[in-house]
Design a protein that fits this description.
single chain; mainly alpha; 77% helix; 0% strand; NCA2-like; membrane; Protein DGS1, mitochondrial; transmembrane
Length: 602
């Protein structure tokens, strides 16, 4: 397509990526050439150096899912006899092959998931990816092409979307073929180890050479798959830059392949040959996957990082302008104000409320009798009013008031008399009972005010703790937010590794993925599609290894690891019945606490 550069040209970013991808390829090539200069008799010494080199280069590639071998098969740490030395070395190279293949499968799967998610997006999302998520060089190139086509054609947006789809589909095709080839290789190796496990323990002298010859044949088959991929992609691909040289593995001599028993030198040469082939495979895949992998995080978010860098630069200049280096004291004043504001906030919303709550809890009952208005004062006012009402009623009616008469009844007499006195206010004010009635009403008003003040004082004293807690609420909410952030950080609740709800969901989704691949494998077997079934079985082993790796820590925390480990191994056995495997997957998600959802666990 015209949106892609010619095959013999490359952008600066592509050239840099090619150089980075070729470094491991040529480093391993130089190492293999140096090793070939020494005679075979020194191959044991060279093998030790080669193992040390591989451990230094690929420390992160460690096999977690166990090999399908008997429990009494000697591992690389068991060297009790000459036979166990050879067997342990075979075990070591098998672990290394499995670990590297699974690691490469994981890299391919991550890039494949990324391209699939982008391919399923809208046209606007695809156009955004082509312009803004492939780096600044691609941004300039695609922007220039888009503007040019917009001026000359009406379908510039459609052309950009088609170019984006082609860009993604080409990478997805290559990654799918790489994944299929590696999954088939992994499945064949796993089945062979499961088939030959007992013979390797009982008769290692004959079984080990046969196993090495079979593994050598598996590498040859893998070479054929990659050569087909290379020839197909070289002629029609939108990937920038040229492809690496076709992958060619070293082969065992035919005389050794048919031999029933090998010498120590021949066995050592065969193991070193497997190591060399594995290094070639890793180098080839590092280049191929590097050309088709998802963009790096720096490339994807280069716009955000650029804006952040510009913003940081502007902020730095602004900060420098207000600093003491430019003769300004603004920063010192801001720091002082912030310090005072923090101290004031801590004092008003943390220290003082806590001290108030403490004092209220310890001193409330001891000072309950004190207040603005005391009960004794109110009682004195009430008694005085009662006597005034009694005297007024006896003089006004010239009758003795009963002892059980209430203040309300006597107050009615006072009010009736008061209304009559108001007919002639001036005369009655001087010689009548009008002044006395006014004083009684003032006394009644005083009693009402004192009663209201007493009740208000009791309400305030009863709610002192509530007011102190209310003042401390801002600090309380701030503490809750900080504790939540700290809890999330400590849990490392990301993807399938962690102890929180998100990690549990991802682990359960891995179990669902395993169950679907078991069913898909059974369907392909029933349809006679052995090649597809072989690929799916390799992907099943890959999914089991991922679940095995992420569930180990939480399962050990709940003392379920031994049972979970045994069930995962059972799921990987090639001869196990499908119905039993489905039963095991149901047990994983319904019985084990490390795989239960959070709601059921509570």
């Amino acid at each position: 397509m015209d949106s892609q550069p010619p095959a013999n040209e490359s952008t600066p970013s592509t050239a840099y990526s090619n150089v980075v991808d070729l470094i491991p390829f040529y480093s391993n090539y130089i190492w293999n050439r140096l090793a070939s200069l020494y005679p075979t008799s020194n191959s044991i010494f060279l093998g030790k150096i080669s193992n040390l080199y591989r451990q230094t280069v690929s420390t992160k590639r460690q096999l977690s899912f166990p090999l399908p071998l008997p429990s009494d098969f000697p591992s690389s740490s068991m060297v009790s006899s000459n036979t166990s030395v050879d067997t342990a070395r075979i075990h070591g190279v098998l672990e290394e092959i499995m670990a590297d293949v699974l690691s490469n499968l994981h890299d391919i799967q991550k890039s494949l998931d990324f391209w699939q998610s982008r391919a399923e997006g809208s046209n606007a999302r695809k156009a955004y990816f082509m312009i803004f998520e492939r780096g600044p060089v691609a941004f300039l190139n695609e922007s220039t092409k888009f503007v040019t086509k917009s001026l000359s054609e009406e379908s510039a947006m459609q052309h950009l979307c088609q170019s984006s789809s082609s860009h993604m589909l080409d990478r997805m095709r290559v990654l799918l073929e790489l994944r299929s080839a590696l999954a088939s290789f992994l499945a064949q190796l796993y089945v062979e180890l499961d088939k030959r496990g007992e013979d390797l323990v009982k008769n290692p002298e004959k079984s080990l050479p046969s196993l090495l010859a079979v593994i050598n044949g598996l590498f040859s088959n893998l070479e054929g798959s990659f050569s087909h991929l290379h020839a197909e992609r070289e002629s029609d691909s939108s990937v920038d830059g040229s492809y690496p040289m076709p992958l060619v593995f070293d082969r065992l001599p035919e005389v050794n392949e048919e031999g029933s028993q090998w010498t120590d030198c021949e066995l050592t040469d065969a193991i070193n040959l497997l190591h060399k082939n594995l290094d070639k495979l890793n180098s080839y895949l590092s280049v191929m996957v590097g050309k088709h992998r998802k963009p790096r995080r720096m490339t994807l978010f280069w716009v955000r990082y650029t804006c952040g860098a510009v913003g940081l630069s502007v902020f730095s200049l602004w900060l420098l302008r207000h600093s003491s280096l430019m003769g300004s004291s603004d920063i010192e004043n801001w720091v002082h104000d912030a310090k005072e504001a923090t101290t004031s906030f801590f004092s008003d919303h943390v220290e003082q409320p806590l001290l108030s709550i403490r004092d209220e809890l310890f001193d409330t009952f001891r000072r309950r009798h004190k207040g603005v208005m005391e009960t004794e004062e109110v009682q004195l006012t009430q008694d005085s009013l009662h006597r005034m009402l009694r005297n007024f009623c006896e003089q006004a009616t010239r009758e003795k008031v009963p002892d059980n008469a209430s203040d309300q009844e006597m107050l009615e007499v006072v009010m009736n008399r008061y209304e009559k006195e108001l007919v002639h206010p001036i005369h009655n004010l001087l010689s009548g009972e009008l002044a006395r009635g006014l004083l009684i009403q003032v006394q009644k008003l005083k009693l009402d005010i004192e009663t209201a003040m007493l009740e208000l004082d009791q309400i305030l004293r009863a709610n002192e703790i509530n007011f102190a807690i209310l003042a401390a609420l801002p600090a309380f909410f701030l503490s809750i937010v900080m504790l939540t952030v700290l809890r999330t950080w400590l849990k490392t609740d990301s993807k399938a590794q962690g102890r929180g709800r998100i990690a549990r969901i991802h682990r359960r989704l891995l179990v669902v993925e395993i169950e679907k691949r078991i069913m898909q494998y059974q369907n392909y077997i029933e349809q006679g599609r052995d090649k597809d079934a072989e690929t799916i079985f390799g992907l099943l082993i890959y999914s089991l290894e991922r679940l095995y790796r992420v569930v180990e820590k939480p399962a050990r925390a709940t003392d379920e690891w031994n049972l979970v480990k045994q069930d995962l191994i059972e799921l990987g056995r090639p001869q196990q019945q499908t119905s039993y495997k489905l039963t095991v997957t149901q047990r994983l998600v319904t019985v084990y606490d490390c795989l239960l959802p959070t709601l059921k666990r509570q």
